[in-house]
Amino acid sequence: MLHARAVAVGFTLLTVAKTMTSVAATASSEPRGLHASVTPDARTGSPQQRLQKLLAVPGHQPSRMNDLLLLRPETDSPTAEEKSNNKHVVFFHGDIQNFEEDMALQPEGSQWLRWSLEQVALTLGRRFPDRHVWMVRASNMYLHKFSCYHNFVESNMFGAPEHSAYSTDFGAFLHLRDLLSHGMERADLPHPLQPQGGADSIPSGFSLILVGFSKGCVVLNQMVYELPGARADPQLSHFIKQITDMFWLDGGHPGGSETWVTDKQVLKELASSGVSIHAHVTPYEVCDPMRAWVGREHTLFIKTLEEFGACPSKKLHFEDEPPSIENHFRVIQEF
């Protein structure tokens, strides 16, 4: 059952239902299939010039597409550096976050422009200066604010997930791998990841960090559920081995449970995977008495991983400040 508060935005579903019931689900209005061309500035210029928008990039199936935003790492010698630099960060955003131009058109989005995909990419570029930063835009933004990652995990219109085990037909890992492969080719990066294959399909030096914020954490959660099956698949296991870190940033969604993974069997698999696990939260999510299960699940997530021998890094940010949406977003800067 959907909870009354829309996580990461602060608008209640009840208010939405009363004021916007006549509005249908809305996908991105941007022209599909267009993308920015690669210019010399995109490789060596200012941070804004190193941003490249890639629209309608196909994933595991041609019909499953996501828009991407790429921030290239700054380098004084692009040819030599990019040949050796195949390190990447992938970010999954929360509700209300979108491309800057889309957010500016929405009254509720315009007040949060500093957390647009472009601005967050620049923030992550400072946090990971030697990596390519990929922003994955949710495939649908219901009512222009509820991020729905349908291509990664089965979800309702508000983005509340229905997690499932690994499948060779539909899955978060499969979609991410193909999405990155096609995105790297579209961006004309040297030595792109291959969409299929074993160890020989992974380019030299390739490594991956995954970051989910708020609603975007549902993608990371789905990957945790898929881990046992995906690690056993020779077509995917070598790709998963290149994931060095997973960051959960103040995870939340409008469902009434499974904000954090608590299944012991899949957490045992995560603990043994070798991935470094990071959980950064704020009182906005884990100290809300109206959604007490979020804090309980977060505690159980950490405790279970520790019981299985993992050493997840964890931090409660802004614990001495009142819960606020602003601090919810600020965890992106502070983690």
Automatic annotation (TrEMBL):
Chain positions covered by the region annotation Disordered: 28-47
Keywords, alphabetical: Signal
This protein's record includes keyword Ribonucleoprotein: no
This protein's GO CC annotations: mitochondrion
Signal peptide (residue range): 1-17
PANTHER family the UniProt entry points to: MITOCHONDRIAL PROTEIN C2ORF69, UPF0565 PROTEIN C2ORF69
Protein name: Chromosome 2 open reading frame 69
Species this protein is from: Labrus bergylta (ballan wrasse)
Lineage of the organism: Eukaryota, Metazoa, Chordata, Craniata, Vertebrata
